Amino acid sequence: MTSPQSQSYLIVGAGVFGVSTAYELIRKYPHASVTIVDRDAWDADTRVAASWDWNKVVRADYDDIIYCKLALEAQDIFENDPLYQPFFHKTGIFWICRSDYASAVVDNYKKLGRKAELSAVPVSEARKLYGGLFEDADYTGGVQDVLVNKTSGWANAGDALRAVTKRSIELGVKYVVADIDSLQFEEGGRCTGVKTTRGNSLTASHVVLCTGAFTAKLLEQAAQASGKPDISAGDRIIAGGIATGMTTLDEKSYERFAKMPVGVQGYNVATGPFIGSLPPTRDRELKWWGQKIFKNTQNILGRQISAPPNEPDYAQWKVSGPLKQDIAHANNVFYGKNGANWKMEKHRICWDAFTSSSDFIISPHAAAQGLYVATCGSFHGYKFFPVLGKYITQMLEGTLEPELQAKWGWDAKRPAAETNPDFPRFEMNDLLDSKARL
Ligand SMILES: Cc1cc2nc3c(=O)[nH]c(=O)nc-3n(C[C@H](O)[C@H](O)[C@H](O)COP(=O)(O)OP(=O)(O)OC[C@H]3O[C@@H](n4cnc5c(N)ncnc54)[C@H](O)[C@@H]3O)c2cc1C
Known about the structure:
11 helices, sarcosine oxidase activity, flavin adenine dinucleotide binding, FAD-dep_OxRdtase, MTOX
């Protein structure tokens, strides 16, 4: 068997899954050939990647103990590694829970032996915290308590992604800008590379798809072009979009909100997904994500598949009135009258790949040797940036522990989508401006 040092790795997609993998591989195997290919330059002013963003929540507040443990491992790197540390802000989190989520998280920290300033706080007490910033939030719908974790926070997402990509390139990773149209297979069925929309080929002994929301579409195109139906993702991977919005705080509001924690409104499957609000950036921009998660089902070579819009920028800046309204709703359930006069200035639609369990897929593709899939951040993948590459490399080497293989496998057993509050439940087409739909 050839040594990993002489292997070649072609990683499609330069979001956190792809970049973390490239960074891990080039440090572990400095003589291996590691290439990332993405349709956007790593230092472009705007990108379609979900990982490219002003900010993302970094927390280990999970009721699932596996993600809790992994997120703690990642957060320690965010806090201590000089490469990540400048981008992490330990502001704390204020999570309004409509289930026993808070106590489950506190329990997980205990089980993992992790000491941290976190507790489940009764609503009456929580309203007064942080100078009453959340006094006017929505606490209806069976709120049990508020999870307050002083050790959670957020990261300047796009800046951290850029920094780790830059470091990887300095260490020897090759970065190619190209749009990938399909995959290439040799006669025995092994995947040998990719084909760009301009007709060029890139080859490697390992092809790793870290293509986020585009994955199902790419696999469908590859399945049809190669006549190999099993390459298709089937119903494993769904592209979903969510609107985000920002306001620039005036001097007075900034003074009040500058030290705020991340805010989360937790709901349940009957009501909808959780909503979040992130503390102001250095430009005084406070952000929300909305509650409407939607598919964009298209006819792709005869199959109905959800994928981002066809425009090169995924039409991410074209945000309809109903989606802007969703952000206004998010503002209201956190800040009520305090935020009633804020002007919403920036809106974006962010696309990610989802599974029905919200678990990642980090796995060999079952239908072709040499082909690997590492994606499906399912709306919570960013925070694992510092450790994803370690686990994806273990998967490539066949050393991923059985528990994680079972959780992230291509053919893992997954629940019905209806049981997951965060699974896309709208169609983008039904959320357009009514005029545009005519
Ligand atoms: C609104 C929103 C808020 C979120 N908030 C948080 C949060 O607070 N905390 C958190 O931990 N997570 C959060 N997430 C989830 C997180 O952002 C994603 O799970 C994670 O960034 C996904 O990373 P990725 O590498 O899989 O995909 P991406 O970051 O989307 O990267 C995929 C890359 O593949 C490239 N690509 C795809 N197809 C092709 C092709 N055919 N040819 C060339 N290039 C291609 C794209 O250009 C892109 O750069 C959020 C997601 C959304 C949508």
